[in-house]
Design goal:
heterodimer; A: about 90 residues; alpha+beta; 5 strands; about 20% helix; about 35% strand; elongated; B: about 350 residues; alpha/beta; Rossmann fold; five-stranded parallel sheet; four-stranded parallel sheet; 11 strands
């Protein structure tokens, strides 16, 4: 029920889009997201796009994970709480 | 798959495990309140990556699990009408009612169809105007906007044979109830997909009023491990707040359009949560102007009050008081093939996940 998956937008037709989840194609209502174009990624939940995925934030989290991985092998401290993450 | 595989990188997860181990200074208990997190935590073996001092508890996050037996009984009763088609999500088909599940009613000839979305249920109604199609609307803030949009569409298109049996619920009151009952936890792994809609700010009351840590979290192993690290650091620093780990999908303010659709169709109401009782403003009611679609009003059914099963401890499990293995029925009378309680039915239920991934450890 809570399952939502990132899906790539293939085609936009009015209030609906054709989206691909790892190659499986679904129809999604897109009334809750703005400015959707083919190639964008959305979060698909129960037949609706509930969010447009944010590439910059995704990369920022990956940067943080890389930093933690690098410091995991040393004695340094990195990550949330060090003003590098936890944007709220 | 983009936005998934990157967060399953085992080197990242190992780095996080090492960092967590290094920073643990005491015992910690964190609760997740999303069925997706319950399933992911067990599927990815997260507890085995954490030091013994860090305990993860499952709260009331599975919408199927917290749907009262009375709701299932109502669906089954409606399905006995010759001119009614029930459209439901697959998770609901095997949920035991007082006497039978929707799946058993279907096997007896009732017209019950599995759909992937509310708009698919509306399409069913359009395709056969002679039948009355009742969509079983369960789920939290994540799912409710889709139901709202579908009702708005039905109203706009004058579809007069489409109805909704509504049991939508909202998450923050359940978290507050758990805290008021004195749950011994240090923080919440907050539900990422609920927060996509509500915004992370919906959980601000937790650090502000209860002094507990919060991390709004994604569903891949690195997401969950990073959230645990965030929570440990908040506890260690004594500075609880709501952090967003799942920033690729969640903002502080949430999806304002989805919120607007929800408010157009629904208003808050007190609601029964299976295992937890009646929660103040814990559910959503269909507003007066959309009542013609409300199957609970249009098709009143008289069903007896279900008797509580005193041996099943789903309620205690949903509140994080007991573990699935504490239940006398677990893995004996109650299994995924023959579920007795709702926590064993849904793949996101604590008992189901525990049975599938942990009970043979």
């Amino acid at each position: 029920m809570c399952l939502s998956l990132p899906a790539r937008v293939l085609k936009v037709e009015g209030d609906m889009a054709e989206v691909s989840v790892g190659g499986a194609v679904f129809r999604a209502g897109i009334q809750m997201v703005e400015d959707l174009r083919p190639g964008d990624y959305i979060l698909l939940h129960a037949g609706f796009a509930i969010a447009k995925m944010k590439e910059d934030e995704a990369l920022e989290t990956l940067r943080l994970l890389n930093e933690i991985e690098a410091s995991g092998s040393g004695t340094g401290k990195a990550g949330p709480g060090d003003d590098t993450g936890g944007r709220a | 798959m983009k936005y998934v595989d990157e967060y399953r990188n085992e080197r990242h997860v190992a780095g996080l495990a090492e960092m967590i181990k290094r920073e643990v200074t005491r015992e910690y208990s964190f609760m997740e309140v999303c069925g997706g997190h319950t399933a992911a935590i067990h599927r990815f073996g997260i507890p085995s990556l954490l030091p013994g001092e860090v305990k993860l508890l499952s709260g009331p996050g599975c919408p199927v699990c917290v749907t009262p037996a009375r709701y299932i009984d109502t669906l089954v009763a409606l399905a006995s009408h010759m001119d009614i088609t029930i459209a439901l999500f697959g998770d609901l088909i095997r949920v035991p009612g007082t006497l039978i599940s929707p799946g058993e009613a279907k096997a007896s000839g009732a017209d019950i169809r599995i759909v992937l979305s509310a708009h698919e249920a509306l399409d069913l109604a359009r395709s056969d105007p002679q039948r009355k199609v009742v969509f079983a609307a369960i789920g939290f803030e994540t799912t409710a906007p889709g139901t709202a949009l579908t009702l708005m569409q039905a109203e706009k298109d004058l579809v007069r044979n489409f109805y909704v049996l509504n049991a939508h619920k909202v998450m923050p009151p359940a978290m507050e109830m758990i805290l008021r009952q004195g749950a011994r936890i240090d923080g919440f792994i907050c539900p990422g997909h609920v927060a996509v809609i509500t915004g992370a700010a919906a959980f601000d009351f937790i650090p502000q009023n209860y002094g507990l840590a919060c991390a709004v979290t994604g569903f891949e192993p690195a997401d969950i491990m990073l959230a645990v690290l965030m929570l440990i650091r908040q506890v260690n620093l004594g500075k609880p707040r709501v952090e967003i780990e799942y920033a690729r999908a969640v903002s502080a303010g949430g999806n304002t359009m989805a919120g607007r659709y929800m408010r157009e169709v629904f208003e808050p109401e007190d609601a029964e949560w299976r295992g937890l009782g009646i929660l103040e403003s814990g559910g959503l009611k269909i507003r007066e102007c959309y009542r013609r679609f409300d199957a609970g009003i249009v098709f009143p059914v008289d069903i007896p009050e279900p008797e509580a099963d005193i041996t099943c401890i789903c309620g205690d499990i949903l509140r994080g008081v007991s573990k699935p293995s504490d239940c006398p029925l677990f893995a004996s009378a109650c299994t995924p093939d023959h579920p007795q309680g709702a926590c064993m039915v849904s793949a996101e239920g604590s008992c189901h996940s525990f049975f599938k991934y942990c009970c043979h450890e």
